[in-house]
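Example S7 (structure tokens).
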């Protein structure tokens, strides 16, 4: 493996001088200190403690990571499928053994509660388990005797160096959506985690090395816009997988595809829960409150808009009462339901949108601004917030708030509710709450959203299926894990073959037909 990586003597003075630990790059199988002069603090959002400093990798370091992946591909691509699978069998074991530590790192840098952090790791672990089944997933097809003595078969072959760019809100699950499946398919990988919370991702990368990934098969670089653009433009990267906001995802998709790469981008959302009056009241209220305010609303599949149909409009006081029972506080404190927002900028954005909601005429049923969190006056906290009387055109409906804010709209009928949801450009997730099979089936058939829950508020599919957000929430045809991603991370090659007996005879065939 070429060693094009930084030596300790090249340490940036800023990094060397500080007592705060630095986040390393992973290049060529080694954790290396960046030589960059641009660093950013990784901050605990409940306390503002600086946990680490993350480098913005230099162009040379990004090139070194891609070069290392390119070299590693030469041997990894033909590594036996069982050997590739066994790395992920081992990785799933290591993730299980280190679950508590991973969750603690994640909570410290991202803010979500410890049980939810374990959920974040667990949903990624499911993809690692699936990657261990690559032997079955990457099977080709064969048709015997497509013409006389002719067989045709397909191979699903790896592409080369693939890259992934991940958001802050699932710093374990989403990196684990990407590199395990790409690598299990025989590709090598360059990952760029969110610069806001890269530490748990790095711990997962270390575990992947411990599980037996050869040097250069997985590389991790850090940074922001420049690193992302370098990935999109790099001639040696064949495919880019992105998860994040619609603004950045659209840019990444356009830039990467214009550079001739495959790209898939899972992006922003506005997810509606449609509540019919016959729904199971207690379970539905629990589901709405959990899905709107869990993870402080910082989930792409959060249910952020409740569409109350007919008499379900009378549920608002119960919804507010249920939301008030949630405890706001630091994610590592037992009993906390709603942790802090990831950053001061996110806090300012969410409180600004709440103010806009009031100014634009929505009714503030529950105000979660500036909640009292004893001992954590510096934390980026917003408690559950509920608006009713919300209309299209209001900022709180048009924008993805990405905070613990539920907006309520009303509809006279299921038809009206379906039309309302379908008129929203986003298509990440939706759910219907009802005890009527006929109503649920109508919803399933007529709703134009890629992931549908029936009495399930956050219908993120397990990896036997693929994440299947749609419309403005996604660019690219294939999903980020499950069977679909095997097609994304491979090139199909069709082989048509014929073998001749020594004594075979025959004439020239000047037609297109196989004879
Ligand atoms: P983001 O788009 O700000 O950042 C995502 C990645 O892009 C990060 O790695 C970041 O460093 C990079 N980036 C940021 N600005 C950039 C720029 N100008 N140019 C190039 N790269 C840039 O997203 P976020 O705030 O980290 O995450 C929240 C968003 O992600 C929400 O919109 C949420 O809905 C979405 N999300 C979607 C899914 C999904 O599956 N659809 C899943 C999780 C999150």
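Recovered sequence:
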């Amino acid at each position: 493996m070429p060693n094009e990586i930084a030596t300790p003597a090249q340490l940036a003075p800023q990094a060397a001088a500080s007592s705060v630990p630095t986040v390393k790059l992973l290049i060529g199988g080694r954790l290396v200190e960046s030589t960059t002069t641009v660093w950013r603090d990784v901050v605990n959002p409940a306390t503002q403690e600086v946990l680490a400093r993350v480098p913005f990798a230099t162009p040379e370091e990004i090139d070194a990571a891609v070069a290392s992946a390119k070299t590693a591909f030469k041997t990894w691509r033909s590594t036996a499928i069982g050997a590739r699978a066994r790395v992920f069998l081992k990785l799933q074991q290591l993730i299980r053994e280190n679950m508590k530590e991973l969750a603690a790192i994640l909570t410290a840098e991202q803010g979500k509660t410890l049980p939810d952090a374990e959920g974040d790791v667990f949903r990624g672990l499911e993809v690692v388990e699936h990657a261990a089944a690559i032997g079955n997933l990457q099977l080709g097809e064969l048709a015997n005797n497509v013409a006389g003595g002719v067989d045709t078969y397909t191979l699903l072959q790896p592409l080369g160096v693939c890259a992934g760019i991940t958001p802050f809100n699932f710093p374990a699950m989403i990196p684990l959506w990407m590199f395990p499946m790409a690598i299990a398919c025989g590709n090598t990988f360059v990952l760029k985690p969110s610069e806001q919370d890269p530490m748990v991702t790095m711990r997962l990368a270390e575990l992947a090395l411990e599980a037996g990934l050869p040097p250069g098969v997985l590389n991790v670089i850090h940074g922001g816009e420049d690193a992302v653009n370098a990935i999109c433009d790099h001639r040696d990267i064949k495919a880019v997988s992105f998860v994040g906001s619609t603004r950045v995802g659209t840019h990444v998709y356009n830039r990467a595809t214009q550079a001739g790469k495959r790209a898939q981008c899972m992006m922003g959302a506005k997810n509606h829960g449609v509540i019919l009056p016959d729904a199971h009241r207690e379970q539905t209220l629990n589901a709405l409150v959990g899905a709107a305010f869990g993870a402080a609303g910082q989930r792409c599949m959060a249910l952020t808009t409740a569409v109350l149909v007919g008499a379900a409009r009378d549920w608002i006081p119960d919804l507010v009462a249920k939301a008030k029972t949630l405890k706001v506080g630091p994610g590592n404190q037992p009993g906390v339901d709603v942790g802090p927002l990831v950053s001061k900028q996110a806090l300012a954005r969410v409180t600004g949108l709440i103010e806009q909601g009031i100014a634009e005429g929505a009714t503030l049923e529950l105000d979660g601004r500036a909640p009292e969190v004893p001992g954590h006056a510096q934390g980026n906290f917003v408690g559950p917030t509920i608006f009713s009387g919300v209309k299209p055109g209001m900022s709180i409906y048009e924008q993805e708030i990405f905070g613990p804010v539920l907006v309520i709209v009303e509809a006279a009928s299921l038809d009206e509710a379906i039309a309302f949801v379908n008129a929203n450009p986003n298509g990440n997730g939706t759910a219907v709450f009802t005890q009527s099979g006929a109503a649920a089936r109508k919803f399933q058939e007529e709703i134009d959203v890629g992931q549908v829950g029936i009495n399930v508020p956050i219908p993120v599919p397990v990896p036997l299926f693929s994440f299947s957000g749609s419309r403005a929430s996604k660019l690219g045809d294939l999903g980020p894990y499950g069977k679909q991603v095997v097609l994304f991370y491979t090139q199909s090659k069709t082989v048509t073959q014929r073998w001749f007996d020594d004594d075979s005879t025959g004439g020239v065939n000047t037609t297109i037909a196989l004879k």
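Notes on this example. The two ends are 48 Å apart (CA to CA).
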